Every structure is written in C-alpha cells, then in structure tokens.
From TrEMBL:
<dbReference type="GO" id="GO:0022857">
    <property type="term" value="F:transmembrane transporter activity"/>
</dbReference>
<feature type="transmembrane region" description="Helical">
    <location>
        <begin position="149"/>
        <end position="175"/>
    </location>
</feature>
<feature type="transmembrane region" description="Helical">
    <location>
        <begin position="297"/>
        <end position="315"/>
    </location>
</feature>
<feature type="domain" description="ABC transmembrane type-1">
    <location>
        <begin position="148"/>
        <end position="346"/>
    </location>
</feature>
<dbReference type="GO" id="GO:0043190">
    <property type="term" value="C:ATP-binding cassette (ABC) transporter complex"/>
</dbReference>
<feature type="transmembrane region" description="Helical">
    <location>
        <begin position="22"/>
        <end position="44"/>
    </location>
</feature>
<keyword id="KW-0472">Membrane</keyword>
<feature type="transmembrane region" description="Helical">
    <location>
        <begin position="187"/>
        <end position="211"/>
    </location>
</feature>
<dbReference type="InterPro" id="IPR043429">
    <property type="entry name" value="ArtM/GltK/GlnP/TcyL/YhdX-like"/>
</dbReference>
<comment type="similarity">
    <text>Belongs to the binding-protein-dependent transport system permease family. HisMQ subfamily.</text>
</comment>
<keyword id="KW-0813">Transport</keyword>
<dbReference type="Pfam" id="PF00528">
    <property type="entry name" value="BPD_transp_1"/>
</dbReference>
<keyword id="KW-1003">Cell membrane</keyword>
<feature type="transmembrane region" description="Helical">
    <location>
        <begin position="93"/>
        <end position="111"/>
    </location>
</feature>
<feature type="transmembrane region" description="Helical">
    <location>
        <begin position="223"/>
        <end position="243"/>
    </location>
</feature>
<feature type="transmembrane region" description="Helical">
    <location>
        <begin position="118"/>
        <end position="143"/>
    </location>
</feature>
<protein>
    <submittedName>
        <fullName>Amino acid ABC transporter permease</fullName>
    </submittedName>
</protein>
Amino acid sequence: MSATTAPAGPAFTERATAFLRACFAGPVNSAITLACLAVLYFAVPPFWAWAVTNATWNGNAETCRAAGGACWAFVREKFWFSIFGLYPYEERWRPATMIVILVAMVVASTIRRFWGRWLLLGWAVAAPAMWLLMQGGVFGLSFVQTRQWGGLTITGIIAVYGLALGYPLAILLALGRRSELPLLRWFCTAVIECVRGVPLISLLFMAAIMLPLFMPEGVTIDRLIRVLVAYTLFTAAYMAEVVRGGLQAMPRGQYEAADAIGLGYWKKMRLVILPQALTVTIPAQVNTFIGLFKDTTLVVVIGVFDFFTTLRAALGDPNWLGFPTEAYLFAAGVYFVLCFAMSRYSQNLERTLRPESR
C-alpha cells in the first residue's frame, strides 16, 4: 500500500492572487488597502532618502549635519559602549566571552535533542562561571564592580538569569496555588497576588531601598543581585498564572488516568500533566516572556545601566549631540530582532509539540 503524501502547498502566484483578492474584497477592504498604499507612497521614499541615500556612515557630527541624513556614524561610534557599558576597556574580552557562552547556552536550549539532564548541568555550570568571569576577583582576574557593568551585557544577564530562575519558581507557585493543603495554597496565592498587584518599578525600589534594612548589620547585598531577586519574583508571579491556566485546561480524565496507573503526585505532574499544560500555554508564555524582556529597561530607576539606558547616556556626549532618532531606531531594531526571534521560535515549537505533528 502506497503511503499517502501531503498535498503540495499553493504556488507563489496562487498565494499572491489570494492575498490581492482578500485586500480588495469589498469596498471597506479596498478603501483600507488604498489608504495603506497611500501612506506607504508618501512615507517610504522620504524615510529611505533620510535613512539610506543621504545617511552618513563614517565621520563625525559635523559631517552628519552637513549631509542632512541619518547619522549612523553615531551608532557606529557608540556601538561597543552600548554593548559593554562602562566595563574597563582592557577587560572587555570578559563580557564578550560571557555573551558568547550565554548565546551558546540559549541556542542549545532551543534545540530539542539537547533537552535533558546534561543541559541542566550545563546551565548549572555556566551560570556561576559567567558571573565569576564578569566579576573577577578569582583565577587572577581583576575585580570589576557590578556598577561598571552595563549595555546589552547587563540586559542579557537580567533577562536570562531572571527568566531561568523565575520559570521553575512559577511552576512551583502554580502547583502550590492548586494544592489541597490550605496553608500552602494560601501562601502561594498571597505571593502571586501581592507581587502581581504592584508594578515592577515598586519591586525594584523595595529591593534597592527596603531589602538592605532587613539585613544584619554589616551585611550588604550587591545591587545587581537585588535587581535579579525582584525581577525573578516578578517573573515567577506572572508566569505562575499562565501555568495555572494550563493546569486548569487539562481534562479531568488526564488526572484520573495518571491516578489509575498508580503514579504519585510528582510523577503524575512531571510525566503527564505538566508537559501538556506547558505545551498548550506556549503562546501565553512567550507573550509574557517578551513583555518581561522589555521590562528590563526599568532597572534604570535604581541606577543599573541596561542597553537602552547606555544609548541614552551616549546621547549626552558633547561631541555627538543631536542624534536621538538614530539611537532610538537602533535600540528599537535590536529589541525587535530579539523579540521577533522569540516569537518565531515559539511558533515553531508549538507546531513541533502539537500532538498531530508527532
């Protein structure tokens, strides 16, 4: 018996014809399409002339002002500052190495065949190793205070460490909120609702100002550690509600089937319930991840210079005054690329984990 082959997708011309037919299907769609084309006609050519044709890619501020176009020379001049911040110039190989390790670990985490204990072990080794590499003070590395860390490096540290620590905590909070033990359920509910009930800025202020007041005399906690604690709690609270939604979406029969074969609570959750609950909530999880990633810009309120803040600080250079548009467009482009990559990966992961695709 011959195998059934899936029908081939429509040709490009067929898809284009269907797209045009949808754009002009009726007077309302036609009017909207024509309005969009008019906006593009009047907006794209001037923007192209400013951003590309008349742009300055090399030179100084005077060269940019004389050309009258975009001053990408400013972005080129401040590029490494936006990546490393105030990290000592002669030691920048350390954050560069840290970024390479971080990117390698993130990429490995997106490949399904690497999922398992070895990946967890890799993160367990890489996380403290990257921190020691940045901070120094060991193995002959000079000590660099965290207040000198900045740029895209600090954004990556806060986002990845916060999400990596907050995600398992979110699962525990979600399970605790659905627990049959009243005290555990009330405690998890109180943590989730209290954290979700205040903005991230408030948590950052409390971590920066109030947390040291509860420490014993002479004991101080690094400012970046306090930021990570607040960001991790904020991440866990929001992700816990997403995970709880997935748990509630599971049919009762799944729980009963796991009980029928004699699985204990943790095995039932690990092998049956959580894999399905986390799969059905992938879109909501990624949407929350993207929002939390962009929230890293709020750490500036307690003096931590993330990627966006370093670009704003670069605008204060007296030799490069007057080019905020280029800086903000560059920042928007970086954030868009990273967020779009997360979105596309989530769509691919959702298709891969869909039961009918297995």
